[in-house]
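tool_call: predict_structure(chain=1)
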Amino acid sequence: MKSERKGKTLGTLGTILGLIAFGVGLLHFTFGPIEEPKPVESVGPYTIIHYPDAPAGSFEVSSGNESIFVRHGGDAAIMHPKFKVPLVMVRDTNHDGIPDRLDYDVLDSKGNLVSSASDYNYDGQIDRRIVVESRGDNKPPIKSYVWLQDEWKEMRNFGRDSDGLLIRKIKISNEWKRIDISAYPFKLGD
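tool_result:
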């Protein structure tokens, strides 16, 4: 009986590590009140945790107080163990069961964002990137870029519209054009 349990435990851990290693698609992080997590199984220093109110198939792998991997609905994330934030996320944004977006962040030794990149259609071309610059002047330290018309274009926020949504614009031919990045492909407006 004990050896059966050990085999089952190692099989479960192997499955989890396989998901991590191969990035099999899986995470719509919805941070909000959640029920008390329920530890399901422990394997050496790792604990598999289930959140009762999360979508089916959701779980977390942790070691001590460090979250290592999270699966939530159709998305998955490899977590920074010290800062407890996602470093790499594979997403199924249209909920068809197939991964279609990849996001990754780079943090400094204090856990501050250095840069972020997103591949919105999972084709290997980064579509949006954010770079944080440390500067002493009054210019914004965060710059955002989108890949459009075969080149990087700086994107800026120009307040909010009447619905409260950010107005984002990029410069094309010396003219600021509105851009909608809520869905891919990005859409240019007036």
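agent: Residues 82 and 147 are 32 Å apart (CA to CA). Proceeding to next step.
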